[in-house]
Sequence to fold (184 residues):
Amino acid sequence: MYGLVNKAVRDLVCATQGEDVWEEIVELAGIDEDTFISMRPYPDELTYKLVAAASERLQLPAAAILTLFGEHWTKFTAREGYGDLIRGSGDSVEEFLGNLDAMHARVAMSFPELRPPSFRVERGDEGLLLHYMSEREGLAPMVVGLLTGLGAHFKEEVEVTQVKSRAEHGHDVFLVRTRAASTT
Ligand code: HEM
Fold:
């Protein structure tokens, strides 16, 4: 994945645990670099190794690391110069989700080797059904965090339940319920 993703992992760890812990994680992961170039593609393997090492060092399941990472992503990209792109992609979680593929297509104009996921939104009886299709395995917990992070961005409370998994259904499906965050 592009260095922007690895940079976001670094940013999250440094902000919450400090630089020393980040250095330990890089060492545990057995990778040579501890900083990344946003616009350069890196092997997916490197990102997965960072997540596994963070999981070991912080004594948290890898899924929890991915969820925290997903939550951090909207804040991080807004800060890294993608604020206009986010603003232009919707005024609510629901609207934004409907525009995600178009948004990643815009991202691909500056990241030509992007291999983005694809999302489809469907209205179910109990809320939105979000279908998540990816060539990569194991990132469903990141999507859960992404949705909570989007909720924080749009000041909405977001409840996410995974209702189908890639293993049984070919792709992951999430039930997403949103409502305006209470101001009290
Ligand atoms: C401005 C905001 C965003 C930018 C700039 C962005 C950009 C990217 C980039 C660079 C990657 C790495 C893919 C690659 O290198 O091949 C990626 C992956 C991904 N993005 Fe986005 N993204 C944004 C917002 C979102 C949001 C809001 C969601 C979901 C709610 C999302 C879902 C994902 C997922 C799940 C992946 C992991 C790759 C996979 O599933 O195969 N992104 N995105």
